[in-house]
Fold each of these.
Amino acid sequence: MREYLKFYIDGQWVDPVSPKTAEVINPATEAVSGTISLGSAADVDKAVAAARKAFSSWSQTTRAQRLDLLGAIQAEYAKRQTELGDAIMEEMGAPSSLAHGFHVGLGAGHLQTAIEVLKDFQFDEARGATLIAKEPIGVCGLITPWNWPMNQTCVKIFPALATGNTMILKPPQLAPYSAHILAEILDAAGVPAGVFNMIQGSGSVIGTALSTHEDVDMISFTGSEPVGVQIQKDAATTIKRVGLELGGKSAFIVLDDPALADSVAGATGGMMGNSGQTCSAGSRLLVPHARMDEAIAAAKAAADAVTVGDPKGNAAMGPVVSKAQYNVIQDYIQKGLDEGATLIAGGLGRPDGLDKGWFVKPTVFVGTNDMVIAREEIFGPVLVIIGYDDVDHAVEIANDTNFGLAGYVNGQDLDQVRAVARRMRTGWISMNGGFDFHAPFGGYKRSGNGREWGDYGFHEYLEIKSLLGYA
Ligand code: TAP
């Protein structure tokens, strides 16, 4: 049993102002795996005061000093990767290979990227007699979700640190362990007191206290659209900057060529990764009508091949994060059946032999883009295949959504792949599996604003000052 009852404030592990706790449930077993403290607005006030005090010195540190600290964090992070992977497995149910591999690797990747970017980042830009200086915003509130715990925390913390900001992290109640370990890593690496603070607790208490706080200058939020809207409203009275990374309903366009079956299999397997709990998941698979039979066969084979089970074993897919999330997904599967989508793999209920734990069957429907299962984010292992007539039609379907986070295009004709990708209205598009830690990540439309990852991620945490007549 884990007991993570202290918060990290002003360089110390401290008790909450008013003791209140919550149990954390292991989604694979439904058993209690540990206890965390739930903070209050009084804890936020303490952390904000510490971050404000630390800002005056941290914001003045040199590039070399910040690089030294990030290097020390990297060494500590490397020592504790196994522990981090174990925690992620336990808190949100990612299978061992994924938790210890990509989950922990994403955090390490953002740290390495922050170091690489910081080495050359132009904080000062001369334009004739004018100097444009990029300066840290100040005290930042970082509010993160449970689905990729290390990705979500590290993609905010390291750019914020590298640009000279101080911060308060509010991790999700559903995945608090890895964030606690990350705070220990930062502490061990020697982050100066008050520069990084971490308070566990509920979003409606800690998140709201940060968003409305007079002395917090910026909120970076990743999570659901309704909470993003609420944070914008809460932050409005203090005119603080708000960065939002929200949901998606991303299209995966497979072009009509000999590799279609392989692309469909890859897209289906990708959708089931992390139990479909990925904001950028390619949850609408667009294939040519003329090749639908082939696509269905490939998708069914790929979905049926996904092993589901105990995260500690060799299964490719673990449970979804919670009972509530399980129920939401079951409701969507029922909705798909009710609205006449054709179920070709998976379906309602748990996979055979799994009576405990929030396990969902890898599910594939064939449907149309007007169906609820094609319009709303399910955040579970549910894929909808939609047929298109020609490439123009594929682009039209892909863009016919309120979201605009990610997109995928697979095909052998690179000119055509590029042309299709350019017509898609989303912030991040992977062509034939492309991936890059330095590429900006963020959404068009209701998927959010701002961009994280790489040097664009630095700009999220910078004010711009024009110094006229400087030269
Ligand atoms: P949310 O319910 O939005 O929670 C995200 C975080 O916000 C949690 O830490 C939560 O605290 C906190 N929060 C809740 N209410 C708040 C409030 N009123 N003010 C401030 N903070 C508040 O999302 P989730 O269920 O964790 O994640 C699933 C959703 O996030 C999906 O829609 C998914 O698409 C989206 N998501 C998007 C991305 C990107 S990169 N665009 C990445 C991951 C997830 P608690 O501890 O109380 O939950």
Amino acid sequence: AVLVVGGFATFIAVSFLSADLDTRGEVAFDRPLAVPPLAGSRVEGDGTRVFTLRMQRGRSDFGASRPTPTWGFDGDYLGPTLRAEIGEKVRVEVTNAVGETSTVHWHGMHLPPEMDGGPHQPIAHGATWKPHWTIDQPASTLWYHPHPHGQTAAHVRRGLAGMFLLDDPAAKTHDGTLPRTYGVDDVPLIVQDVSLEDDGRLVETPSLLSSIGLLGDTVLVNGTPGPYVDVTAERTRFRVLNASSARTYTFVFSDGREFHQVATDGGLVPSPVPLRDLVLSPGERAEIVVGMTAGERTVLRSAPTPDRLGPRNRLAGDEDHLDVLELRAATRLSASAPLPRRLAPAPDVDPGDAVRTRRFSVGSQTINGRRMDMDRIDAQVEAGSTEIWDLSSDDGGPHNFHVHDVQFRVLDVGGEKPVAALHGWKDTVLVRPGRDVRVAVRFNLPPGAAGDDGAPYMFHCHLLRHEDSGAMGQFVVVPPGQGTDDETSPAPAT
Ligand code: C2O
Ligand code: CU
């Protein structure tokens, strides 16, 4: 019966040809992909859009013999998708009911430091935290997750993560022709790898041999193991978030098909980028548009690091193919508009404006040889100024680098122009050993920011074990003229 479907037969053939790489065995793809619900909200008299989130414990069926104890926002695992428009005032009322102090960080959001949800904004069990800010950045796919000092990997892995989508009502000419019906032809994919104990519990302790952190053998997409998605349109936009604690994915389709990247972490790219593979390290997002014809099937999977990058760029755990999601096109597809040729202006940060260059050398427990200290400020940057940050690996291993509050422009990678997939706004970037990454960052003050006496923002490795072990530093945005070079100073009392 399966052979009557041409696309599926192709999939079998391709799988057979690469069978020697498929050491993880077959993924059944027998569960429909869950799609996180859109969060409800109310709008107050002054126009503030208010969301509520409750961090709670639950149980999830990940295919083990018994349910897996998990955490979620408003549910058993992961959280609803928050959605707001550029210029809107928002408030999120977050109640912690997980039994441990945690935080909620708005990854990629430009907002005042005391609203950021990093380690300086703890939410005790039973407490409600009510951060508020004005959305002031391009349309993009952001996300939220806990950030308690030393506990981020555990809290994220247990399931506390969700998407935060920003829409630009004024930019309909570009964004408006991309697929945009949530859950139909605009589908979030939160990709995580986990391992399960025999009794269903999540494995929480990385092997002593793994410096990178925990690499799981089960891939969950939106919390669904072995998922398939029914594709109903000629073109589908997938908003892919790598919410894994350690694994970097090289996403490909099993039939090698081309797809287009339309957005990076912080918004649309200048024009659609044709790709056959897409590398995403933990914390990074990409929006891709995939075309399908009626009745065909293909599998989104992670491929080994291409050999052209050399053995040092092999990433732990990526020596095998890892199946992620099967796409099943319906026998009749709704028509989709062609991809727009132009999407958004290129990031307008000019490295020629940079007032200083800072170097950050990332290890598995340190940045520039120092471990994270909540009472130390590692960099004071000037409001409105542009800096170049030069990012490298300290220890011969891969890391990645995330900066809170800002979106930056990647200038070069290993001394070469970045690939087109890095041409948009970024807040997290993979740093492979021996291939330094230079980025240009402009530190605009968010509306309502205190400026010089707020809490610090974080920068860190987003391999969560490294972040938790101390590969993190703190910066504050100070008035023009008061910035300092790469020297440390005591943190302001918060
Ligand atoms: Cu996604 Cu500081 O984190
Ligand atoms: Cu790291």
